[in-house]
Amino acid sequence: MKNVLKKQMFALILLGFMAIIQISQAQAPPPPPGTKGGETNGVPGGGGAPIGSGIVLLITLAAGYGGKKVFDARKRLAV
Q1: Which comes out higher in pLDDT, residue 71 or 22?
Q2: pLDDT band at 48 (very low <50, low <70, confident <90, very high)
Q3: Whole-angstrom Cα distance, residue 46 to residue 56?
Q4: Where are the beta strands (DSSP E) in the chain?
Q5: How far apart are CA 34 and CA 70, in angstroms?
Q6: Could you read off the pLDDT of 49-63 as tens digits, one per residue?
């Protein structure tokens, strides 16, 4: 009985995955590239987003996290 139940559960899960694949189709492809390198106004791929401040923010957060880890490790050794 358990073997039959396992086979039925496997078949049900397999059918569920097949149904999800049919439902989740990809969207239509983008329009063909224009004459200015593929962008409409000649803007580079990122759209002119300022990534410099984001990198500084990430480095600052990483340094703070590392500093806290060092502080905690030294505090544990002192005890």
Answers
A1: 71
A2: low
A3: 18
A4: none
A5: 52
A6: 666 777 888 999 999
What is the amino acid identity at position 77? L
- What amino acid is encoded at 38 in this protein? G
Instruction: Give me 34's structure tokens.
Output: 């224009």
Reduced to 3 states (helix: H, G, I; strand: E, B; else coil), residue 49 is coil
CB within 8 A of 36, min separation 6: which ones? 42
Looking at residue 39, what DSSP letter applies?
Answer: S
Domain definitions of the chain by residue range: 52-79
Q: What is the pTM of this model?
A: 0.38
